[in-house]
Amino acid sequence: MATPGSEATWLWVGFIGMLLGTVYFAVQGRGSTDPEQQTYYIITTIIPAIAAAAYLAMATGLGVISMPIRGAAGVDIYWARYADWLLTTPLLIIDLALVAGVRKRMIYKLLVIDVIMILGGLAGSMMQQGAVIRIAWWAVSTAAFIILLYYLLGEFSRRARNRSTATGVVFRRLRNITLGLWALYPLVWILGTGGGFGMITITTEIMLYVVLDIGTKVGFGAVLLNSQDILQTADHPTSKGDIKSQ
Ligand code: RET
């Protein structure tokens, strides 16, 4: 356990942002009676709730350890963020899979790839031997990430389009948020304490992760939950009018 320095302010911003996101989604989901819709609400509400717990742990020093890395006496490793990502990125993928209507086997495949991506980042951040080994882990993690994008752009998008035009549009919006924001994580990692170069300060690194985490969890969730009407109409065209023919 180590004590967070000036970056603590941003960790508290992260905590409050996630808490507000959780409350917002929970309140929004209260009126829902449709079981399919409830699944989206439950998954999407749990995501910022997990992150709020992780940010609280990081802000209070529980989720951070100080490790000697390459001569530097104590580099703070915020391991709790990997615990957060390990749980929340699979849930985000499940949200995308539900919209696209992909097969279970495909979901399992993506979840394995996703876990490799996050654990690769955790392993790299913990390595004490120096830059080469850290970058090697970064490369493993980034390779997993690229495979993940390949499936999101290919199979997932195709399935969503085949479901209905409206589903295709909603999926594309969610996918683009995911592609655009997720791609910034490996950059922040390699520039910050992860890569070991320290090209950005720890405060900047944490601030960037907070902004990205809020975008990928609360921003993504808001778009998804506000698209429920479109998705429901598209999936049950006979009951609410056929969106496909519009
Ligand atoms: C790491 C390590 C370096 C290489 C890559 C990474 C990717 C991380 C990603 C994280 C996404 C997190 C989200 C969190 C909030 O919901 C682990 C930084 C590729 C893509 C979406």
Produce a short descriptive summary.
This protein has 246 residues and is mostly helical. It has helices at residues 8-29, 35-59, 80-100, 104-126, 131-163, 165-182, 184-191, 202-226, 228-235, 237-240, and strands at 65-69, 72-77. The protein has a two-stranded antiparallel sheet with strand order 1-2.
Describe this structure in words.
It contains ten helices and two strands. A hairpin with a 2-residue loop joins strand 1 (65-69) and strand 2 (72-77). Helices cover 76% and strands 4% of the residues. It has a single domain, classed as Rhodopsin 7-helix transmembrane proteins (Rhopdopsin 7-helix transmembrane proteins), CATH 1.20.1070. The longest helix is centred in the middle third of the chain and has 33 residues, at 131-163. The protein is mainly alpha-helical. Retinal is lined by residues 85, 88-89, 92, 117-118, 121, 138, 141-142, 145, 182, 185-186, 189, 213, 216-217.
Query: From the alpha-carbon coordinates, what is the Rg to the nearest angstrom?
Result: 19 Å
Mean pLDDT: 90
How many separate domains? 1
Residue runs with pLDDT of under 50 for 5 or more positions? 238-246
Q: Sheet with the most strands?
A: 2 strands, antiparallel
Order of helices and strands: HHEEHHHHHHHH
CATH superfamily: Rhodopsin 7-helix transmembrane proteins
Ligands bound, unique: retinal
Task: Look at the structure and give the CATH class.
Answer: Mainly Alpha
* CATH-derived architecture: Up-down Bundle
Strand content: under 5%
Distance between the termini: 57 Å
- Care to count the β-strands? 2
